[in-house]
Backbone:
């Protein structure tokens, strides 16, 4: 099958990683696939282009592919894309963001036989804008969403046909994220002693990510479990105000490890955790860090928010809580004080990650969508 993937951004984000998973899986399955994305500015070290090249994929960057609507750049892209589609006789145009969805639809509108697919990585409701109402109409042949919550939102908000929406959870690389990455030497490099239990969070440090709840829960828990450490993996322009100053003010500095943003050793850093906390889904909504922790056999304590209860099976491979400091403290204490339960939940979390979030299964499911839409 001949497929064109469009991604209207150059930045390395959650949706960018999910898109690369799709492209990689389909290439490995033998499809004739072209991937077009935005071109990063000169001197940028971290970009979608760089990450794609590391995976053996050479993106097409000759289109503007702006993240946001730009009338002159969009007109140029539409003209050139229409010619490109005709010349290469694509069967499927798979889009991933709002602007590339728009570009794909307008470019293909006069070409017979091309089907338009859209992946939606939002775990919550899509904004009911005029643009979205146009895009999620009969002009789109199929939608792939990441959760049942998102699927119902599309049905209720845009009245999209039920048989044209597929729920396919985003995958996780089970080879990169596996419990064998755990290393006592890496833990020691962060100052973690052998008997200390590490609760961790991976998130951009912003006010809405409920770090105040997490720090209050830590203060309550260390009164009973003094060998507890909190590891905060991430960065953010508000990190001083949201996390570092409150940690000092609350006298929690001996118990908190700030790792900053990790790239090359991210999996090894994640493996330092014994328990992971996730309170608010990020901007892409797919809760990627939760799936990664599950693949590492790390039980997750998650808030009853968004699609988190769809990922974590409460009491089986993690815990779902109403996220007050008291509830979070109690959940942490229950897992810290019961290592056997922690191990059992971790093992079941990895089993779910490998069975439901595997790259192989992901490729198969996307392929099935293409076959259905094409027929």
Residues:
């Amino acid at each position: 099958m001949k497929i064109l993937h469009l991604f209207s951004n150059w930045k390395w984000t959650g949706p960018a990683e999910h898109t690369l998973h799709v492209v990689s899986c389909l290439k490995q399955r033998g499809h004739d696939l072209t991937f077009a994305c935005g071109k990063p500015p000169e001197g940028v070290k971290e970009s979608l282009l760089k990450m794609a090249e590391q995976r053996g994929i050479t993106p097409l960057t000759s289109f503007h592919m702006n993240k946001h609507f730009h009338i002159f750049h969009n007109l140029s892209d539409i003209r050139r894309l229409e010619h490109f589609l005709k010349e290469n006789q694509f069967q499927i145009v798979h889009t991933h963001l709002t602007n590339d969805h728009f570009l794909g639809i307008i470019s293909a509108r006069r070409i017979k036989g091309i089907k338009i697919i859209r992946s939606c990585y939002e775990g919550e409701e899509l904004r009911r804008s005029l643009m979205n109402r146009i895009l999620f109409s009969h002009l789109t042949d199929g939608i792939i969403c990441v959760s049942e919550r998102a699927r119902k939102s599309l049905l209720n908000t845009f009245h999209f046909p039920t048989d044209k929406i597929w729920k396919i959870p985003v995958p996780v690389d089970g080879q990169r994220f596996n419990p064998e990455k755990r290393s006592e030497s890496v833990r020691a490099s962060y100052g973690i002693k052998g008997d200390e239990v590490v609760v961790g969070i991976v998130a951009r440090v912003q006010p809405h990510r409920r770090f105040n709840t997490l720090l209050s829960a830590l203060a309550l828990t260390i009164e009973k479990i003094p060998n507890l450490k909190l590891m905060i993996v991430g960065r953010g322009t508000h990190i001083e105000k949201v996390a570092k100053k409150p940690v000092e003010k609350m006298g929690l500095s001996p118990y908190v490890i700030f790792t900053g943003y990790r790239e090359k050793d991210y999996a090894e850093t994640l493996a330092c955790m014994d328990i992971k906390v996730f309170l608010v889904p990020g901007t892409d909504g797919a809760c990627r860090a939760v799936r990664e922790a599950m693949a590492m056999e790390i039980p997750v304590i998650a808030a009853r928010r968004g699609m988190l209860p769809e990922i974590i099976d409460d009491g089986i491979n993690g815990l779902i809580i109403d996220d007050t400091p008291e509830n979070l403290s109690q959940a942490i204490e229950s897992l810290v004080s019961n290592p056997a339960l922690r191990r059992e939940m971790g093992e079941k979390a990895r089993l779910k990650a490998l069975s439901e979030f595997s790259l192989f299964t992901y490729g198969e499911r996307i392929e099935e969508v293409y076959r259905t839409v094409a027929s």
Observations:
- The chain has two domains: 2-171+358-374, 179-356.
- The longest helix spans residues 71-88.
